[in-house]
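User: two proteins, same treatment. go.

Assistant:
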Amino acid sequence: MNPPDLPEWRTLAERRRALDAVRIADLFDDDPQRADDFLFETPLLRADLSRNKVDSGTMLALVALARACGLERQRNDLLSGAVVNTTEGRPAWHTALRSAPADPTAAAGLQAERERFLDFAEQLRAGGITGTVGLPLETVVCIGIGGSDLGPRLVTEALGPFGRPRVRFASNLDPADLDAALLDANPHTTLLLAISKTFSTLETVENLQAALRWFKTRAPELDPSAHLAAVTSHPERAAALGIDSTRVFTFPEWVGGRYSLWSACGLGIAIAHGRAAFGELLLGAAAMDEHFAQAPLERNLPVLLGMLGVWHVNFWEAKTRAVVPYAQQLRHLPAYLQQLEMESLGKQVDRAGLPLTIDSAPVVWGEVGTNAQHSVFQFLHQGTSAVPLDIVLIAANETSGERRAQLLNQYALAQADALAWGDRLLGEEARPSYRAAPGDRPSTLIWLPRLDARSVGALLALYEHRTFVQSVVWNINAFDQWGVEIGKQLLARRAQAPGA
């Protein structure tokens, strides 16, 4: 299937031409109900799509394209555990980690491993797990990279301050990263948690070995095995490094790294915030799974957001898209979405191995609001290209007793209006060209009711499904990442070369 050959694609190309001379402000002028008509809700989140250059007919045409590309069938395959990652011959069944699968054997196995790592987290939180000299382990250093780091790090910080054990993260091969994670840690009360699907990722193995040397230097009397735990799909490799099998937690091979925070890879989240919070995180994601599975495509938020992305990339030639969360605790969201979207969608061939004839993944970037307003918003308002923008807000800020929290949302809404209408909102007086803000720049508002585990789970599942929707239309495999491998292979050659 070549998407541009579909009649639904050609219909959208015609609608794009018809909207060429139309401004976002005109769409509001023509439809007094637009703000209400373009507000979409799920059980946990809502999104305002009205500030995008799209009318109701175009939204229906986008949904028609999704249907023509077989979205409903492919969605059902994804959610039922069918083989959708064709180059690796496996499912991408991460939804089974939070929405119990129909297969009772699979469900029981996943539940048993979840209980095992959550029990470990609770024991650690209660001070029941001690190191060599009998002191409770009070600092946990999570060592991983990519999906083994970005998702757990994002959620751990998103859920707010926590006490002990202290949970820290180290991912970069640069020694400064691990040094910072171990700063002021007491080796007698420190646990190293190595997280790696294959347990052969160079950065993770090297950082783990460096941390073990830190133990040996600081406290040579310690038994390292009392200070180690691991999460992997290959427990035998963790055991080969001397990690006690009772502290090795596993997840299925079909869980991709960027979808793994729902598994034992999220152990750091459970240690920081507890079993109940981790359960709420899963419930929020499961609610979004159900919405994605059952809501009509015309009201299905992951579908609509995904198709808006197709609209921007393929019909308005957007090369980048920005994400700005107006919540400091979500400051890692742009980096998390960079991996989710660019690793999933950054492909040059379709499912048949044929070269793509259309653009796929845009560059994803962003910064936390309000910091972004004093840096990148200059580019968003006056740059030479219009960049689609997601603005993530917390509704509870509006009733907060803290003035700064209230101002966060007011700032976000002001920026969304400025992007859509430009400086015409300030009056009709003429402005020098260097001050002019033309507006007519798209943005989407995504509202979380509050910044809690259930809302965060729903938000991340929303973006997962949004990404999948785009992969269906672009006819690409969203679940492999062969481009990541070439650098690893060349590094291995260099490391083995004489004199290396």
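Protein 2:
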Amino acid sequence: MEDSQHGLSDLFDQLGLASSDVDIAAFIVEHRPLHPEIILSEAPFWSLTQAKFLREQIKADADWAVTIDKFDTSLR
């Protein structure tokens, strides 16, 4: 994987979520801890479109993958 050009606020924008530092922190607090056996894209709090985006980006090892992995870690 290459270093990502995207930050968490960019990821939240892409997912259609509020993307301020406060909003991101609140989302993480609300949804953690995510059970280790749940794949991030299969978490119950995503819409179908959000889940598809996350799944496709990880599968393609796209430039979003680094940011998604960091976000995933923050939810664990």
